[in-house]
Amino acid sequence: MIVAGLTGSIGMGKSTVARYLRSKGVPVLDADQIVHELYTGEAVPLIEAVFPGTVRDGAVDRQALAQKALASEEALKKLEAIVHPLVRRTEWRLLLAEQDKGAELVILEVPLLFETAAQTLFDAIIVVSAPAEAQAERVAARPGMTPGKFQAIAGRQWPDAEKRARADFVVDTGAPLEDTYRQIDAVVEEIKRWQPLAYQRWADLNVA
To answer: Beta-carbon neighbour count of residue 198 at 10 Å?
Structure first.
């Protein structure tokens, strides 16, 4: 089974690409969704122990957590030390399930793929990109988004140009949707020709 990573900066169109891939029958695992589920389950007591007062009604209050975790680099590293291993274990369990189903290709949508040095876990990396103007317009349209919040999020992400340079494939979502879809189809067709090596790396991590 081939394991590919899907990434890109905020507002670049990862969700659009992921939805299309799913519509074509390609399993896409969403790291953000995994975190959301952990914040209502396994991660709750661990986070409350390190960041007291960030749990409300049995779930992590993401806004309260963000205020504390983003207060310093040390606090952020503490949060990452809690969440990243849990995310990896969950991803591995999901990969095992897809392997059992006989999936030929599985894609993990990971917004901070490069930033968390996860490159070696994938057979191929797809970067979703768009012109800066389109990115800014999409981000500004999000509910609750402010220029300050955008800058804080963008500050944790590698520049788009660097991600593109390190990608195996780049999908341009600044083009009309039909063109974007054609790009995705071509990428999937090509990736399926690649030799699957990453799955064994996941297994070797012993994160199950």
So the answer is: 22
pLDDT in tens, 112-162: 899 889 999 999 999 999 998 888 888 888 887 777 777 777 777 899 999
- 201 in the same domain as 168: yes
Residues 34 and 20 in one domain: no
- Per DSSP, helices labelled H in the chain are 14-23, 31-38, 44-50, 62-69, 73-101, 132-140, 147-155, 160-166, 177-191, 198-204
* Tens of pLDDT, residues 9-31: 988 999 999 999 999 999 999 99
Mean pLDDT of the chain: 92
pLDDT-based confidence at residue 208 (cuts at 50, 70, 90): very low
d(CA 136, CA 141): 9
Domain match, 21 and 115 both: yes
Q: What is the CA radius of gyration of the chain?
A: 17
> Residue 38: how many CB atoms within 10 A of its CB?
20
Domain of residue 62 covers 30-102
123 and 70, same domain (yes or no): no
The verdict on 97 and 109 lying in the same domain is: no
Instruction: For helices 62-69 and 73-101, give the axis angle rounded to 10 degrees.
Output: 130
Cβ–Cβ under 8 Å, residues 2 and 196: yes
- 188 and 114 in one domain? yes
Query: Do 203 and 165 fall within a single domain?
Result: yes
Which pTM value belongs to this model? 0.87
Which amino acid, one-letter code, is at 116? Answer: T
